[in-house]
Amino acid sequence: MRFFSLKNKLFVLVLLGVAALSLNVFQEGARNGSLNVFRPVQSALWSMGNGVSGFFSSLFGQGFQKENEELRAENLKLSQELVAQASMQQENEQLRVALRLGVDKEFSVLLAQAFAKDASQDVLFLNKGTRDGVQKGMAVMTSHKAAAGKITEVFEDSSKLLLISHPKSSFDAKIEGKGIAGVVKGQGRYQAALDVIPPEIEVLAGDMVATASIGGIFPKDLLVGKVREVRASDLEAFQQATLDLSFSLNDTELLFIILGHK
Amino acid sequence: MKAAVFMGIAGIGLALVQTSFFPHFSFFGIVPPVALLALVVFNCIESFEVRRGLALALGAGFALDVFSSHVFGFWLCIFVGVAWATKFVMHYYVRTPILQKPQPF
Question: Looking at beta carbons, which residues of chain A come within 8 Å of B105?
Answer without folding.
Answer: 3-4
